[in-house]
Every structure is written in C-alpha cells, then in structure tokens.
Amino acid sequence: MLSLSGGGFRGLYTAQVLADLEAELGEPIARHFDLVAGTSVGGILALAVAMEIPAKKIVELFVEHGEDIFKKRLSLLGILRSSYSSGPLAKLLEAEDLFGERLLGECLHPVVVPSINYSTGKPVLFKTPHHENFKRDHTYRLVDVALATSAAPAYFPRHTFNNNQYVDGGLFANAPGILANHEALTFFGRAQEDVWMLSVGTMSALFTVDPRGNREGGTLDWGGWSPAETPKRLFGLAISVQESLTDFILKHCLQGRYQHLDDDLTERRANAVALDKANAAAREVLQGTAAERSKFAIGDPVIRNFFNHRPQAARFHYGPRAAKE
C-alpha cells in the first residue's frame, strides 16, 4: 500500500519524492502497489498515481503554477470568503493531459481518497470499484474528487457537486494510512501480517505554543489580529497531530512492514515553508529536501523491497474497467 499525506503546497515534497522514485524505477510507481490512498494534496497525487500520470508532471504543475493556486484574493481578512479561490487549481486539473473530464472509474489502480460531506456532517471515502459494494463513486469526475478532498477550511471554498458540499479530508485523515490498512483487512480480505505500507509525508511542521503568548483561548490567542488565521492554525494543528498519531499506530500494527518517508523542518526552514507558501524559497526547501530523502530511499534495501512487489491485476466490478465475466 502507498499512503500520501496532505499538506497544501508542501505536497511538492511528496510529488518530488515520487518523481525521483519513478525515475529510478523507470515506470509508474503504482505498478508496485495494490492500493494507493491519499488525502488533500496527497489525494490529488493519489489520483494521478492511480491514473499512471507521471509524478514529474505534478511537480511541474506545482513549480510553474503554485503561486497562481495560492494567489491571495480580496476576502476582508477572511471574513467574507476564503483566502484563495479553487478556480486556478480546477482549471489546471481539467487540462486534458491531467484529469480532464475522466472519471474515478477510469483509474488503472485501486485508490481511496477521503473527504468530509459537510452537507451530512459525515466522513466520506471516494473509492474505485475494487469491491462489489462500491457502486457509485466510479461515476464521479476525478476533478471533483480532487477538489473535494483538498478544500481546506479558510484556505479554499467548499467544493460542491452531486448536490453536496465537501471539505478537506485532512480534518479526520490527513495521513490516510489507517484507512488504507482498514481497506486491506476489510475489503481486500488480507491478514494483518500480509500488509506492507510505504507512507510519504509533506514535511509537516509540529504546531506548538509560544509560552510567552496569550493563553486565554480566544481569537487573539489562536489567530492573532486576523480572524482568518484562527481556523488555519487549528487546521494546521489537527493535521500535524494526526500525522504523528497515525505514524505511531501504524508502527505498532505493521511493525517492520511500515516505512515512512518524511523530514522534520528545522527552525529556519520552517519559516520558509507553509501550507500556502509557494514562492522560490519554499520550492527550494521542499524539492531539495525531497531529493535527499529519495536518495536515501533508493539506497535502502528495506524500501527497495516494496519495489520488488508486482500486484495481481486489479479487479474492478463496475465502470469502464470492470472485469469481463
């Protein structure tokens, strides 16, 4: 299993690691995994991986258009609307050489992408039809699934399709490895000892408190003088804690069969990197660190063992790739 975390523009780190691994393998990385799971920007990457779109293309998208995606718009300090529009990202993803108008059911490999259905207040997992019970999601556009999983509160507006409003899956599953493990046990019928997982993070910074600051729990405490910063900081804290918790749990569940590729941000580098920083300094930190991490991964025999795996051809029950009886 391949698990890809969320983290906004920090997903450039994830994309660069995947691109480097694909360059070493000489083929799409999905051909070595039975399932790909991804949340938020990791969900966008997971969909691309499942479609065998080269990770290098996603790297190029972030490098060339990151500042367009995260271009501030008039929002009256986040009171009227989110800081960024989802329009530029949607337009990029709708390009014919990316997702275009293709559907989830056209994926070549099984994939799971979490979001939250804000209309019902419940979590939702968008899935390819790799189980006979998964009858509906394959009819959804890849672009809609991508925008639904990455609609980070206060950063982007909610994404509406199919008469429902969706927000970022990172609120409950920013690191989707636990969901992938459940999928393996429940819907693929695997025993726990047969599950192997490679997880790739996004250099998620740990959100901690300044002991010198206000600790009264109000807007000034959480967000300073800008109301928009309060939900952003709470969202950042939520995804940071989830990353740590998921890593801890999966190390127990999978033991030596779980490998996590990620890097901690030093104090100075943390100032250059954020969910919505897409400038040259952020790109340098993310791509440079990813290059070092992928070099380590390529030389690690434990991680190389993942790439010796060749899964059986995926069996889809519905849609254009449904198995012929």
From TrEMBL:
Motif GXGXXG: where in chain: 6-11
* Record-annotated active site: 40, 168
One matching Pfam family: Patatin
Motif GXSXG boundaries:
38-42
Q: Which one of the record's GO molecular function terms can you name?
A: hydrolase activity
Task: Quote the InterPro entries the UniProt record gives.
Answer: Acyl_Trfase/lysoPLipase, PNPLA_dom, Teg/CotR/CapV-like
Single biological process term from Gene Ontology: lipid catabolic process
- Provide this UniProt record's keywords sorted from A to Z: Hydrolase, Lipid degradation, Lipid metabolism
Position of sequence motif DGA/G: 168-170
Top-level taxon of origin: Bacteria
Q: Where is the PNPLA domain?
A: 2-181
Query: Which PANTHER family does the annotation name?
Result: INTRACELLLAR PHOSPHOLIPASE A FAMILY, PATATIN FAMILY PROTEIN
Q: What is this protein called?
A: Patatin
